[in-house]
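thread: overnight batch results

M.L. [08:02]
morning all. the overnight job finished for the chain we discussed friday. pasting input first so we're all looking at the same thing
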Amino acid sequence: MDKLKMEKQSGLIITTSLINLLRKTLFENLGQKKAGKFLLRFGKDLGLETGKALLETGKNRIEALQLAELLHIDTGHISQLTKYGVVQKPEEDMIFKNFSGMWHGSFEVESHLQDFGKVNECSCYIISGFISGVLTVVLEEDIFVKELTCRSKGDEHCTYNVNTRKYWESNGEVLDIYEDDKFIEELEMTYDKLLKKTMQLNEVNNFHSKITDTIAQKNDLSKLLETAYTILKIPIFIVNLNGEVIENIGHENISTIEWAKVIKSNKHTKVHLQKSYKLHMAPIYVDQETFAYCCFVYPKDNELTQNDLVYLERLAVASSVCFLYEKISFETTERFKINFLERMIYNHFKDNGEMYLHANYIEPKISPAFCTLAIDIKENSNVPIDAYQIILNLSRELKKYQLTGMLSKKDRYIVLFLYNLEPQQKYMDNVKSLLNNALQSFNCKVGISNKFIELHDFKVSLAEAEKAMNFPTKDKFIYYSELGIYSSLLENLKPETLRQVAKQELKSLLDPDEKSRTLLYTLYIYLKNNQKLEKTMMDLSLSIGGTKYRLQKIEAIIGKKLKDATTFAFLLIIIETLLLSKEISFD
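M.L. [08:03]
and the structure it wrote out:
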């Protein structure tokens, strides 16, 4: 027993807590099948050594088997062992007659149920192997203990059967426990797979580290793609939701890809086959919404690897960080510009000196020539107006149309202040293209001031733009410089004087009731149509009799004949001046 005690102290008889840790690690890393083979062989080797130690104590074979059973229970591997049947040892082969049994309280069952739950095969690998090893040494013949039922797969008890290797193999059993070479090969294959997986993981980690460092240094999207392409050597495209290429690297001449069609059919990470290419695409999210797509481009016959998917998705995430950083940076800059322009609009600077001081912080630097636009946006039935979002969208588009400016809101309309205008620059063509494209979902009317040189003349230019915007015409773009006499009237006419003259000439037509308003509008349309009765009738959707009746009532109210040229011209100027100054409105 001294020899046995020494072996036990040296770790030959291993405690259940250590074995539980070993089992869990093996199953998680090797899988059930390979881990089971390993534990079976481990249990047998443990049994062989234990059997040898028992015989070296001087015990006979019967005593050695009894002591082995006690040790098995003593270490906590099982709580009790039940045996049935008999063993005979003729001169040649050992014979087991119905030699079976049941082990109770298997530590492997408890461990397996706790770590992995119910499984589909017996799980007492170490116990089966241990008993096989002890019996093999003590009985001097290859013995294998096969577990028949197991509580880990839902059976009531853990039961086993015992017989010789010869018996099992003659009955078609393949005993992996004896196949040393095959087991070693499997371990080597597993090691190779783990090594390959580790190398792939290292490559992914290196890629992730490189692109993360690029983002951490606040580099832009093009630098990020350059870093990724240096590592992967795969052509990369970033495409927006309209199918427009934002950035690309590694392949400049892919003209056959119809990006808009590809984007339309893409909802998540997906491979798209083209005539000559294979596209591997992943969405880029900003603020939890799809903002763009990251795409790897391969020759059509290329096989994709699992790592390619990981690279693509990590690059898509990195790209989203770039876009988010750009969005935050852009909106921070634009908010400063919006605030600056708003203070100019509402005269919140105490003097010109303070205004010029704050202007120095604007990028790009503010310099002449200047121009101010007032943009009146009317809502369509299906497109609600979000003024702040419109301002941001227009700000993003300015550079695309070679314009420099800032935007803000005043009352119901948007103010666009353009600066750094070159003397010979045909900027209005670009302005019209910008507004027509960016605001195509809305009905809008744009008033355009004269060019000016001094920043402190902004308020004058804003007034010009407002007057042009309010001019009663169907034109979309109205230049203050083309208003002619009306601009002079508005500059020199005091509001109170205008109201007195209008009341004197138009009398009760200026009353706020609907009937008076209708007659005033009829008069305005008649004057605008140069007294053409049929055109007025069509514009007002009236009969000829109804139109004449209204005109007669108007003449009776104002006490003048509309056919008189002087009266005609004077009344038209008064009404349009009232409209421009916002004293009246026909909206």
